[in-house]
Amino acid sequence: MQIFSKQLDIDFMSMRKASLMLSLLLVIGSIISLSTRGLNLGIDFTGGYLIEVGYKQSADLGAIRDTLKASDFGDAQVQHFGTSKDVLVRLAPRENSNQATISDSIFKILQQQSTDITMRRVEFVGPQIGEELREQGGMAMLIALFGILIYVSFRFQLKSAAGAIFALIHDVIVTLGVFSVVQMSFDLSVLAAILAVIGYSLNDTVVVLDRIRESFRGIRKKTPHEIINISINATLSRTMITSLTTLLVLLALFYFGGEIIHGFAFALIIGVLIGTYSSVYIASSSLMAMNITKQDFLESIKEEDKELEEMP
Amino acid sequence: MINQYPLWKYLLLIVAVVLGSLYSLPNIYGEDPSVQVSHRITSVDKDTQSKIEVALSIKDVKAMSYEIDQGRMLIRFKSEDDQLKAADIIKSTLNREHIVALNLAPATPDWLSDLGAQPMYLGLDLRGGVHFLMEVDMESAIKRQINDLTSETKAFLRGEKIRYLGVKPSQASMQVKFKTAADRERAEKLMSKEFEGLQFEDIDEGGVFLLVSMTEQAIRDEEKAALQQNITTLRNRVNELGVAEPVIQQQGTNRIVVQLPGVQDTARAKEILGKTATLEFRLTDGTYSDWQQAEQNGHPRLYHERNGDPVLLNRKIIVTGDMINDAASTIDQQSGSPAVSVRLDSKGAKRMGDTTRDHIGDPMAVVFIENKIETKIVDGKTIKVRRKIEEVINIATIRGAFSKSFQITGLDSSEARDLALLLRAGALRAPVEIIEERTVGPSLGQDNIDKGFNSIVLGFIAVLIFMLVYYKVFGIVANIALTVNLVLIFAILSMMQATLTLPGIAGIVLTVGMAVDANVLIFERIREEIRNGNSPQASIHAGYAKALSTITDANITTLLAAIVLFSFGTGPIKGFAITLSIGILTSMFTAIMGTRAVVNLIYGSRNISKLSI
Known about the structure:
Low-confidence stretches of chain A: 306-312
CATH topology of the largest domain in chain B: Multidrug efflux transporter AcrB transmembrane fold
Shape of chain B: elongated
CATH class of the largest domain in chain A: Mainly Alpha
Largest sheet of chain B: 5 strands, antiparallel
Number of helices of chain B: 16
Structural class of chain B: alpha+beta
Structural class of chain A: alpha+beta
Strand content of chain B: 25-35%
Number of strands of chain B: 22
Oligomer: heterodimer
Order of helices and strands of chain A: HEHEHEEHEHHEHHHHH
Distance between the termini of chain B: 21 Å
Shape of chain A: elongated
Radius of gyration of chain B: 34 Å
Radius of gyration of chain A: 25 Å
CATH superfamily of the largest domain in chain A: Multidrug efflux transporter AcrB transmembrane domain
Strand content of chain A: 5-15%
Mean pLDDT of chain A: 85
CATH topology of the largest domain in chain A: Multidrug efflux transporter AcrB transmembrane fold
Largest interface: A-B, 87 and 87 residues
CATH superfamily of the largest domain in chain B: Multidrug efflux transporter AcrB transmembrane domain
CATH class of the largest domain in chain B: Mainly Alpha
Helix content of chain A: 55-70%
Mean pLDDT of chain B: 86
């Protein structure tokens, strides 16, 4: 079976303007949403409490809210988690009280209301930790991007690296934007997913760039426009198939991995979709925008040839 | 002929597959409910074992096996029911010098353990348990040093006959007031010889002062010592709680990670771990009516009893909690009230003996001291609040001289039990505060395991089917590689004795999806070569050759991202980064070398006109 039975010849580069508009729209929309609605940061980053409680029957959220309100925890967010028998209570850090024991008090209060409950999960993140994780998270993202910029410019050249980084920044902003729009909880595991998206999207982009380099060196008498088109077409079925297999497992994770892993799987699914799109359009469009020529790829040819001989 | 592999490559692959299978095998055997018995000081021996065997056989509880390893005994049971029953029986059989803890022991067959093959360790999110991150309050540790220094300085100056007007400690330094600059000069000279790690500064405003503070190095040393002692104490306390396989580790310069698998009663764990409770024994000094006058003299200190009555105590401490060697909660024979029996070390015993001999008929007070530290949010700012609670729990008249062993009353039974535990385990050098908690209940842990493995299996099968349909024979080859890849990941994680967490499982799932990428790249290249009119053999050769540098580049960049994740992430994210990295490396091995070997076996050195791709 083949998705594309003959060699494709789609003129991707002529769709440059349209794809640029789309990307611009997505990025600007994401930035607007991020700056107005912001991310629904989880307790990992804000500090606070998260208590997951299992009930024997489906739980009455209203009654739970009332009980908590009566005990001075009126600000608690109470919601079902996965099933109606699971209840998640979220609470911001409290003023003027011993931080570490609040989760125990909440569980005791809930136990008085309904004795037959089990404690499934408690998370408490002190305000100092939340702040650190926020800083570390941002830092991790920047370092990952910077490290990749260095590697790609060393392996290819600066224009390709810039193209790859544009694609990555695009992917990260749009994925964050989607999280901002749907207001899904953004916690540590989602951050990890976004870093994995950086890795994945780059993986895709590098494959395309690699082919573009090869084509520039191997094909004569064609314009950069045509060469880039040929390269994207040649890698297209691989791009689609790898995205497809990755999406298959991610869907398995999303639907069967349990509620805790939901945000993580969701971020990766969005990231893989956006990353696939960006590796086709953004990275190569940036190369065109930077007027890439054959000359840009000629410097390291000898080195490459030697490597080829040693292959299995 | 092209497309032939040298023998050594086949041998290497076979060795990898065999080792991989062997070392990932222990993971399928599961775990036995078991009871772990250890001794507080020495190791557990055969005598203990026979005692337990007898006790269990009387109550008709059957153990599957007894093992003694590194001074600890592990007793396995068929069911959790047996395990719980046995734990109670063993606890009541052995004396309290033994620690009895519930455990889940891997049921790896002997022939595998003999090869050093062990299952992966399941993280707290999979097996259930508590994770605490504790912060040590270093300011308190330094302040305590300064307080000690203050009293030592007073004694030293008196001993050297240097006149001073006063010594005032503050947070990180102390100020000594002298009458003359000459006294100060002499004191500074002698003190710098006597004490280590101090720096001195003369202050002449409003009197002759000497500002004494600790050097940077001394502060760092003290912080290190405080952290180490706290870790030791926490370990002792965790042992007292009876937790099998706890993790107590330093993190950074002032934090300690405590992981207690299987612990459900987090409230009690928090209480025991965070407590700084200790005791002091002092003589009383006058009555309440003496207080106002006495306070002006500055000699005795005012305390309160539990019922709020004030009491004056002598400044001199007879014995502190540090001098207590052993403690146990018990019942007072005469009054029938809960009590803590205490045994002092030789230094404490001597001081107690001397004091009680000289003060027969005088009242002596037991002071219960608890240091608390809490981070509070006030007006949006986080601040640290330190509180010292000092309560007189008991005043008794000294009826006769005693030294080494005695009893303290005045607590309720749970207080007596906790105090005895804390005194046994040793004091924390500086207060600790829990700044992060992650607790996972056992039901959620099991859910996480089930769901995690379900998603691995489902994702894996989906990819297998897709590859088979899309690439036919080559798809089968890729599927073999993917299977071997999964086996290798589990084998390496088991060999590393890595901790498998839910994010770790997610990493494995993601690897399954991405691992086929290398094969997709290669196979698409082969198809392209065939389309370009090359022979099947040449197409295979060129496909592999041309795809290699792309695969390497693509995987190295993903690896880079994984390394960043690892170095910045905390616990669970690290797990994801580790499995992802291992998956990338093993997938390069299986997808390139592994598939090539199989493809060469099928198609190599033959005349073929068509490839099934």
